[in-house]
Amino acid sequence: MAKALEDKLNDCVVIGGGPAGLTAAIYLARYHLSVTVFHDDSSRASIIPMSHNHAGFPGGISGTELLARMTAQAQLYGAAIRRRKITTLQKIGNGFVAEFENGSIRSRAVLLATGVVNRRPAMPQATHDEAVARGLLRYCPVCDGFEVTDKPVGIIGTGTKGFKEAVFLRSYTKDLTLISPEDVHDLSEVEMSSLAHLGIRVEVGPIASTNLDNDMIRVTTPTETYAFASIYPALGSDICSHLALQIGARVSDEGCITVDGHQRTTVPGFYAAGDVVAGLDQISHAMGQAGVAATTIRNDLGDQAPLVRC
What we know:
By secondary structure, the protein is of the alpha/beta class. Helix content is 28%, strand content 25%.
């Protein structure tokens, strides 16, 4: 069945409803541009139980509350928010057509802010979600390493990624154990020596079981059971840049979208911001990129035709 094409031509369609996408929507709407945000409730920010390093909230703010506030602010200025997953993106002439289930929408510009998906450790979904909600499983030591100061911490990972995560966390606590997700560690002799020098234990996995116990998370390996205040998976992430690939935008070997200093991709009229672009994977950084992208979109559209109030 053919998808219904909406009549309205938007100035910009924003794909992604996390901090980057919503910040851009606020800017674009305040520039008096027509903007529609599409999202599928998959922003990583939504699973943050409490962020303590987001400026302006000394008592912390949960990811869901932050997104709700940003959504309300974008809507206040006229941005449309739609819970629909964009499945296909096409560039047609000087504009774009974005398709979703049973419909499509046209726009002069597109901002992609679809982020990344963390690779999760092997454990039941319910256990994973509860552990994240309780701060027993954490994905961002830059965000919340402070919260594990002087506590026993486990890192699930190996190779250079696991090594770097363990070394980074060593500035917060001396009680660290690096556990491989498989039955062997892929660490170089230099990395093993460095870990030993720093007093970081190295344990061969895989993890046989994971249990939540009051304020601790217990993991059992083939040789021992550990109790940690938190576990950090160092397993990498998958970049959600498939829509960029559909229209031929350049991406890195890892899949991050290539942009210039103003968040323009290699496809005219197509922009990207947030974690889908190589960067710090921080809310503040994503919001900063979004402000730059939105202003660039406004100015680029103005270059095509003067933006005037009637």
